[in-house]
Design brief:
alpha+beta; Cytidine Deaminase, domain 2; 7-stranded mixed beta sheet; 15 helices; about 45% helix; about 10% strand
């Protein structure tokens, strides 16, 4: 189902969106971006509004802004400052159709269908809304080390913060793994949810084809040895597969879909990328010899705007591109004007085509050219309600360029559990172009986010 929220987002009466302008310049802060150093303090509404106004003022002056803390989400929960979050980021998901939780079996069937992979060593929380307990949002965490109880408490606090920020008052959860790993998080979640007036109506542990309930203690329906389950024939699973969905065996299998190409394809991309860089440099030199003052970067951006529009059109038509075109695109996307133009064209009505385009480019891009397409893939994954894919794409973007501000901004958004309904496009391609044209120097002084060439 498509998540319905108030126009201002989950906890604010003001519009909360992510704009290309907000990520055009990387943050200069020396603050660590690791799990351990993320603040769990939510930004207050007045602070966010003031930051938004300041950011808009800066945009009017310069055509783009630095990302303002808290600008992207309303009362956005942050990952805990403790080492509780030392595993992967929380993976969020929103079902593409109406889904209801009516039994433990339906809960266990819904989760892999929404995540699109079978979770393991995980705690999955599903926020529901009345009437009839329709699924509103799903998010998954790695289970923390049970030898450190404070980690379970911090993780549960973040779960409750996410539910509160989205005004969810009822939820269910499943822990996948042994009792010694699941029980501390389950207990902490129940305690903190009760304090926040959030009802946890079901809390299961699943392991080895059986489930146990932490809520039900009646042996006649919840035996001590667990209840066998098999979701393969469940109506939810059948409906999901009939609609063209697929469930991968693990999150690692999902991550493998974004692995960089190797072998001959990698070598072809390396040559094509080098040729594209050399070609644009030669063109710029010839133009300068002819008395036309133009920089390599401005020329790259001009060609890139055309290439992006063409690639998007081709993928929407069901086509694909070869190594030469892909190489040119990865070179062009290092220019922020080109990336922001592509970002502004991410109409969610064509999400499947866009996922295919940016997945292809993320896999094909050579080191130093990955951050742009991977960050765009993360945005489209968020639009589509696939937080796990978004996080994996951000991992690739930040491995390629650790200070890439669009990726850092989206990481904060996904960490907060922000719903896909907030992935709006506040700027049109024409507005993006106008904001860059208003700046003196245009593409020539956009140095911030270019990764080093390898």
């Amino acid at each position: 189902m498509t998540q319905q929220l108030p126009p201002g987002g989950p906890a604010s009466g003001t519009s909360a969106t992510i704009s290309p302008a907000a990520a055009a310049t990387p943050s200069r802060s020396n603050e660590s971006r690791s799990n351990e150093s993320r603040s769990n303090q939510s930004q207050q509404a007045q602070s966010r509004q003031a930051q938004s106004q300041q950011a808009q003022s800066r945009q009017n002056q310069s055509g783009r802004t630095r990302p303002a803390r808290g600008q992207q989400t309303a009362a956005a929960p942050r990952m805990p400052r403790t080492s509780a979050s030392a595993g992967r980021r929380p993976d969020t998901g929103v079902p593409g159709r109406t889904v209801r939780i009516s039994s433990p079996a339906s809960l266990l069937a819904v989760i892999p269908a929404i995540l699109e992979f079978q979770p393991a060593n995980s705690l999955v929380v599903i926020g529901t809304e009345r009437p009839r307990d329709q699924v509103r949002v799903t998010f998954r965490y790695d289970l923390p080390d049970p030898r450190h109880p404070a980690r379970a408490a911090a993780l549960a606090e973040h779960m409750v913060d996410v539910l509160r920020s989205q005004r969810v008052s009822t939820a269910a959860a499943v822990g996948y793994g042994p009792d010694e790993a699941v029980a501390p998080v389950a207990a902490a979640l129940r305690e903190r949810a009760a304090a926040a007036d959030i009802t946890i109506f079901e809390l299961l542990r699943a392991e080895g084809g059986r489930y146990w309930s932490y809520v039900c203690t009646e042996p006649s329906c919840c035996p001590p040895d667990g209840t066998p389950f098999d979701v393969t024939g469940h109506p939810v699973t059948r409906a999901f597969l009939a609609a063209g969905g697929k469930v991968l065996a693990s999150r690692d299998e999902l991550a493998a879909t974004l692995t960089a190409v190797g072998g001959e394809r990698a070598e072809a991309m390396r040559r094509a990328t080098r040729d594209a860089e050399e070609h644009v440099a030669q063109c710029a030199a010839r133009l300068r010899d002819a008395g036309v003052r133009v920089s390599v970067r401005r020329l790259t951006a001009a060609a890139g705007l055309v290439l992006v529009r063409d690639a998007i059109s081709r993928y929407r038509a069901g086509e694909s591109i070869g190594a030469e075109c892909a190489a040119w695109l990865t070179v062009a996307l290092r220019e922020l004007r080109v990336r922001d133009d592509a970002w502004a064209r991410m109409d969610p009505g064509h999400a499947d085509a866009h996922l295919r385009l940016w997945t292809d480019l993320t896999r094909l891009a050579r080191p130093g050219y990955v951050a742009g397409p991977a960050a765009l893939l993360a945005f489209v994954a968020w639009q589509s309600g696939n937080g796990a894919l978004g996080n994996i794409a951000l991992d690739r973007a930040l491995a390629d360029s650790p200070r890439y501000s669009m990726a850092l901004l989206l990481r904060d958004v996904l960490d907060s559990g922000a719903p896909p309904s907030m992935a709006r496009l506040p700027m049109t391609p024409e507005e993006v172009a106008a904001s860059y044209d208003a700046r003196r120097g245009g593409a020539d002084d956009e140095d911030g986010e270019q990764a080093p060439v390898h």
